[in-house]
Amino acid sequence: MTKQKIGVLVMSYGTPESMDQIEAYYTHIRRGRPPEPEQLQDLVNRYDAIVGGFFPLRKNTDRQVEEIEKTLNEQGSEYEFVCYQGLKHAKPFIEDGVEKMVGDGITKAIGVVLAPHYSTMSVGSYIKRAKEKAEELDLSINFVKSYHLYPKLIEVLSERVNTALQKFEGVDKNEVKILFSAHSLPEKILEINDPYPEQLMETSKKIAQKTGITNWDFAWQSAGQTAMPWLGPDILDVLNHIHSQENVQHVLICPIGFVSDHLEILYDIDIECQQVARKLGMHLERTESLNTDPRYMETVAEVVIAKLDKD
User: What confidence tier does 2 reach under pLDDT thresholds 50, 70, 90?
Assistant: First the structure.
């Protein structure tokens, strides 16, 4: 019996593949408006600072897509899964992934974003673009919107916290301030009761409950440089605050809003946050990124199959 072929559109933010692609990438983020020279140079400097311009997000995402496909097909279902990549701001764009599916003869598909928490401005925008292209090409596609409380995800994130706490030798874990973090978004999402902040808080609480930690807080990071206000407090301000107001000496950052090593991890935390921590005399560590951890790959595979079985 021939298995039914199911396309899986694995979506993520995207990143340039080389230094000479940064300007085009930044222009796409700015909806076709080229960045000012100083803005472009700042982004170039940030990429150059993370191991000499190595682009880990692209390579990590490629590996994640490969591993998700492998994990899906190891589930032993009646389906044959084929994964396609769709990026928001780089090639292959989301629309390219949908077109490739249809060109390969795929008639039924599931879309999933490499981000566990839903926001209309993030995951919602990915889904909108994929849905519009699928409708244009008459492809049947449904979407996983969020999986922020999936048991295996909570399990692997909790294990990351426990492992990282061991780096604070001789320090009681209750003396280590845990800062859960995620990418900030414009404050205007609050006006529409966007679920993003609440879902992030739910994930944080579940991890705290599973690990038994009580000394924790939440901070936003990597806000865009725009005139509109973004969600806060910013993690750099939080580091200064907890040092001056709470005399915190040990900090563990757990960036639950990110699933891969990339600029917001390797620069915003490993360089910027570390610079602030060193200046304040604080010991700062972060949890290891999920990348291709088997339990994260299983999480994505299982939520895709669950969505398919519901249809």
Answer: confident
Cβ(224)–Cβ(35) under 8 Å? no
Strand pairing of 176-183 and 216-221? parallel
The arrangement of strands across the sheet holding 176-183 comes to 216-221, 176-183, 250-254, 283-286
Annotated binding site: 13, 30, 46-47, 126, 183, 264
Owner of token pair 């924790």: 216
pLDDT digits (tens, 9 = 90+) for 86-142: 999 999 999 999 999 999 999 999 999 999 999 999 999 999 999 999 999 999 999
Residue 160 tokens, joined? 């990351």
What is the C-alpha to C-alpha distance for residues 222 and 52, in angstroms, rounded to an integer?
20
Domain residue limits, the chain: 4-147+292-310, 151-286
Domain 4-147+292-310 belongs in CATH node 1.10.260.40 = no
Q: Annotated binding site for Fe(2+): which residue ranges?
A: 183, 264
Annotated binding site for Fe-coproporphyrin III: which residue ranges?
13, 30, 46-47, 126
Top CATH class of 151-286 equals alpha beta
